[in-house]
Amino acid sequence: MRVSPAFRFISRTTLLALLVVVAGCSLFHRGKKGDPMDTQTVEQLYQQGIEAIESGNNDYAIRTFQRLTSRFPFGPYTEQSQLDLAYAQYKSDKADEAYSTINRFIKTYPTNKHVDYAFYLRGLINFDRSGGFLEQYVGEDMTQRDQSNLRQSFDDFGALLSRYPQSRYAEDGRQRMVFLRNTMAQSQLNIALFYLKREAYVAAANRAKSIIETFPQSEQAGSALAVMAQSYKMLGQDKLADDAERVLKLNYPNHPFFEGRWPHYRSNWWKLIPLTNRGTSRQGS
């Protein structure tokens, strides 16, 4: 019997489609069989994720918590998994993902009993985004220094202290805020000295004035006043120079400015004690 070309075309097309379906089903069942996460209970998945974190296998912990939240979108395990997921991402140096996860947690679960830790972890994420900034500072154009992450971290810890002043993480957050304040003030002071050395006195005075206004309690405030006094003197603004020097004398009588040993145009980074080497524990459930 003669078969028409049209029938042969339909038969081949149908056969190809069947082969694709069969192959897809085979791969699907093979994948299901090979991935126990699809059959584990929520308790088993959560415990597996915690064990992965404790063993340092943060990438596997991330995958486990993501699978848990996709399979079980509601419940206490899901809430805690979001927090642990952010921690695992943070420890894996996935700052953007961790920040997104922790923000989502804060917005979704504002009454969670561990939300204070969420604010603390958000501050840590931004605190460490500038990892290596002390080492990178050498040779960098000071006027181009981006401090947005430091400022955001400062604000994150500030939110923790204002909302949860009795939190177990409040004291560490407060110390980090002091460090961040001094770090940002020192960076601005270095810029002011940069301008002063190059005889850009107006820019130096303005930068120093901004330190006094923004970081009045920083340890760099005295040197900022000294920059103002020196800059105004070089600009011939004797009254402004005298005012700055008088305030400096009143608050920092032993400043090197009065001993003829200033300015020295050197950075004081060594005075800053970084807290990034402290152990950061995971918030328990």
Structural class: mainly alpha
- What is the C-alpha radius of gyration, as a whole number of Å? 29 Å
CATH superfamily membership of the domain at 38-112: Tetratricopeptide repeat domain
- Helix percentage range: 55-70%
Fill in the CATH topology of the domain at 38-112.
Serine Threonine Protein Phosphatase 5, Tetratricopeptide repeat
User: How large is the count of helical segments?
Assistant: 12
Which overall shape is indicated by the principal axes computed on the Cα atoms? elongated
* The CATH architecture of the domain at 38-112: Alpha Horseshoe
Question: Would you identify the regions where 5 or more consecutive residues have pLDDT less than 50?
Answer: 1-10, 14-23, 26-32, 132-139, 141-145, 265-279
Topology overview:
Elements: H1 5-34, H2 42-54, H3 58-71, H4 76-91, H5 95-108, H6 115-129, H7 133-136, H8 148-163, H9 170-197, H10 201-214, H11 221-234, H12 238-251
Helix pairs in contact: 2-3, 2-4, 3-4, 4-5, 5-6, 6-8, 8-9, 9-10, 9-11, 10-11, 11-12
